[in-house]
Amino acid sequence: MSREESQIPELIRHLGGLRTGVARAISEQTGVAEAQIYGVGSFFHLLNAPDVKLRVCQGLSCRLAGSENVLESIGGNGVLASPCSCLALCDQPPAVLNDRTLSTWNDGEVVALDEAALGGAVSESRSDMAIDLAGEPDFSNRALNRALELGPQAVLDVLEASGLQGRGGAGFPAHLKWRAVRDQAETERFVVLNADEGEPGTFKDRAVLARRPDRVVEGLTIAARVIGANDVTIYYRGAFESLMDKDFEYRGVRFHLHSGHGAYICGEETALLEALEGGRGMPRLKPPFPTTKGLWSKPTLVHNVETIACLPEIIMRGGEWFRGLGRSEPGSKLYSISGHVQKPGTYELPLGVTLDELVEEAGGYVGTLKAFSPGGASSGFLPASERTRPLDAKSLAEVGSMLGSAGVVVLNETVKMPWAALHQLRFFAEESCGQCAPCRIGTRLLAEQLTQHLSSGAPLDAVDDVAWEMGEGSICGLGQTAALPLTSAMKYFPEEFSR
Amino acid sequence: MAGLVTTFGAGAMTNSIGEIRDVDCLFVIGSNTTEAHPVIGMEMKRAARRGATLIVADPRKIWLSTIADRHLELTPGTDIWLLNAMAHVIIAEGLTDDAFIAANTENFEAVVATVAAYTPEQAAVVTGVSADDIRWAARTYATTEKAAIFYTLGITEHSHGTDNVCALANLVLMTGHLGKPSAGLNPLRGQNNVQGANDAGASPIYFPGYQRVDDFGALARYEASWGVTLDPKPGLNLNEMMKEMGRKLRGLFVMGEDIVLSEPNVGHLEKGLNGVDFLVIQDIFPNETTRFAHVVLPATSFAEKEGTFTNSERRVQRVRKAVEPPGQARADWSILLDLAGKAGANWTLESPAEVYAEMVKDTVRFAGISHERIDREGGLQWPCPTPDHPGTRTLHEGGVLRGKGLFTAIEYRPSSELPCDDYPFVLSTGRTLYHYNSATQTRREEGLDSKQPEAFVQIHPRDARELDVRSGDEVAVSTRRGEVRLKALVTRQVKPGRIWMPFHFKEARANLLTNDVGDSVTGTAEYKVCAAQVVKVGEGTSKFPGAYAVE
Amino acid sequence: MTKTLNINGSTFEFVDGESLLEVAQRNGIGIPTLCHDPRLKAVGACRTCLVEVEGQRRLTPACATLAAEGAKVTTDNARIARHRQLLLSMYLADHPIGQKNRGDDELLEMAERFAATPLGALRSARPGRSENVNPYIKFDAERCILCARCVRYCEEVEGVQAITLAGRGSLTTISTADARGLLDSSCELCGGCVDVCPTGAMSQRAGWPLLKSDTKKVRTTCNYCGVGCQMDLVVDPDANDGRGHIVRVDSPGPGTTTNDGNLCVKGRFGTGFVDHPDRLTVPLIRGEDGELHEATWEQALDRVVKGFAAVQEAHGKDALGFVSSSRCTVEENYLVQKLARAVYGTNNVHQCAAT
Ligand SMILES: Cc1cc2nc3c(=O)[nH]c(=O)nc-3n(C[C@H](O)[C@H](O)[C@H](O)COP(=O)(O)O)c2cc1C
Ligand code: SF4
Ligand code: SF4
Ligand code: SF4
Ligand code: FES
Question: Given a cut of 60, is residue C354 above it in pLDDT?
Answer without folding.
Answer: no
